[in-house]
Amino acid sequence: MTSILYIHGLNSSPASTKASQLIRAVQHADLSAQLRVPALHHHPRQAIEQLQAAIAELGRPLLVGSSLGGYYATYLAQQHGLDALLINPAVTPHKRFDGHLGPQTNHYTGETWQLTHDHVQALAELEVAPPRDPQRYHVWLQTADETLDYRHAQAYYAGCTLDIREGGDHSYQGFAERLPEILSLAGFAPAIWQDFDFSTL
After folding, report:
1. Predicted TM-score (pTM) of this structure
2. Which of 41, 106, 151, 173 places its Cα 20 to 30 Å from the Cα of 15?
3. Which residues contact 79 (CB under 8 A, 6 or more apart)?
4. Do residues 96 and 115 make contact, with C-beta atoms less than 8 angstroms apart?
5. Can you list the domains of the chain with their CATH numbers?
6. pLDDT in tens, 65-121
7. CA distances from 106 to 15, 24, 93, 121 (A)
8. Sign of the CA dihedral running 66, 71, 72, 74
9. Rounded distance between C-alpha atoms, residue 52 and residue 68, angstroms
10. Cβ neighbourhood burial of 15 (10 Å; 0-12, 13-18, 19+)
């Protein structure tokens, strides 16, 4: 079944800009039943359980992962043989939390929680080798990402379809205008959205 599983990043939610734009585009096309945008738990083990359940519901969705969601998507894509679109994805995030353990706040829900060594260990357990079948991965990077150095992803996903754009930021500027590409990658027919102005999202 043609479908999409959107995987948000750390301290994000389905209310984030990209997730909201994707949800509205899919609603316009009357395809909401074929999209899942779960509100992920902050602990990686519970988040992965949620994502495994969503994959079981959808069958073989296109995984669209942003930031830490890109790290999750890579693990799941390799496990299930799925296609993935990764947007400014995190690479080995468990190695980049030095000095960041402690209180965290979700930017959208206001939830506060404690980032612990167990979170970091759980992330380490999800680390996989660079993709063995790189044709299944599309990676969108913006060079002015203020949160992650895009060059880490550029190196890790070197054999994949890389789209590197100058400037931008971690949230990925211009995402709405690229939604037709996402819908196409997921297998939806262009006729579904050809009359829609994505710049209005």
Report:
1. 0.96
2. 151
3. none
4. no
5. 4-200 (3.40.50.1820)
6. 999 999 999 999 999 999 999 999 999 999 887 667 899 999 899 999 999 999 999
7. 11, 22, 17, 20
8. positive
9. 16
10. middle
Predicted pLDDT at 68: 97
pLDDT tens digits, 119-128:
999 999 999 9
* Helix H or strand E encompassing 115: strand 112-115
Strands 35-36 and 62-66: unpaired
Distance of CA 146 to the CA centre of its chain: 17
How far CA 96 is from CA of 19, 65, 92, 112, 180, in Å, comes to 25, 19, 7, 20, 33
Query: How buried is 150 (Cβ within 10 angstroms: 0-12 exposed, 13-18 middle, 19+ buried)?
Result: buried
What are phi and psi for residue 29, nearest 5 degrees? -85, 5
